[in-house]
Task: structure prediction
Amino acid sequence: MIQLQQTKSLDKHYLEELGFVWHTDSDESSYIADRLVVISEEEAEAYYEAGNRLYEMFIEAGEHIIKNNLFHEIGIPFNLVELIKASWESEVHWHLYGRFDLAGGIDNQPIKLLEFNADTPTALFETAIIQWAILKKNSLNEEGQFNGLYEALIDNFKRLVTLEESVDAFEERYEGWKFLFTSIKGDTEEEQTVRLLQHIATEAGYETQFAYIDEIEFGKESGIVYEGETYELWFKLIPWEDIALEEPDLAMILKDIVLDQKAIIFNPAYTLMFQSKGMLKILWDLFPNDPLLLESSFEPLKNQKQVAKPIFGREGGSVSILNADGTTEAKIEGGYANHKMVYQAYTKLPTDTEGSSYQAGLFYVYESCALGFRKGGLILDNMSKFVGHIVR
Result:
């Protein structure tokens, strides 16, 4: 059984002062759990090593997809293929950050990859700021977490200029590039996440600005323009697949902007390959029976319990748990059922005494750097809770 430590809840006013305003779910319950997952140093180290190993596997799988032209197989829209190839081949298209969703790792359960949120990962604010604040407000050891996310992002922003592990040369190489950060209007969680990233980039040394997507001008010749200023660097918390499917004209313009070297976009287009859950099947083909992986296929697995999920989807939408006989044990409706499905062998998540399930979120920023947890039912959805952790 998972080990938990009770904590005092953070005051809503205090959370809002930090900029964290999505603290209460639609049923008026707190989104932030009043307890911490207790893990050992050995478990923290195992998560660290797992994330680093998994990222190496994703790189190899990405190379395999490009070499064998498997874009259609993993659901990549055709109008992004050229852009994905271009961003993959040039080292200036740096992967800023991503988040692995993992089963196990605690309560003597092996770590297993569930999926990789590589393009537009959320829970960044919660992981970097809120779970640290829980320790501080409860007079616990503020260093007692596997949580270097904030500092890792500062360094990785600098690597966009140095293009190497060391960030020491950032100041002498930085040429005053303007960095524009963007989200859509009306989604406070996404906007505040983007504004946190903007703040971190500013601290790293960039000149930054924020704009909503509909306030920006995009042009093949002009590049990315906001209020008369041209931006060489652009971060967007807008999924690449949404741009490709819902704004195909914009996708074409962005391709031209990148190919003409007028701007660099983060996260790069190639992260959509990593984001696709079709990668789970590719990984299993390349690394069958790897201890970090679960068997995955585009066809239902025979005679075993499994999870069916769309290759693109969020917050558990259109996900089902299927029993070995094909019957449905649990299902969440959603707007992603039109996507191709991938079938992944089922693995039980760690649980507490109340039967709630816990899923680890491991952030990867050049290397594994931070851990947080989500708590929910058999399938974690948008009503799941964020749970911090403490290392003992």
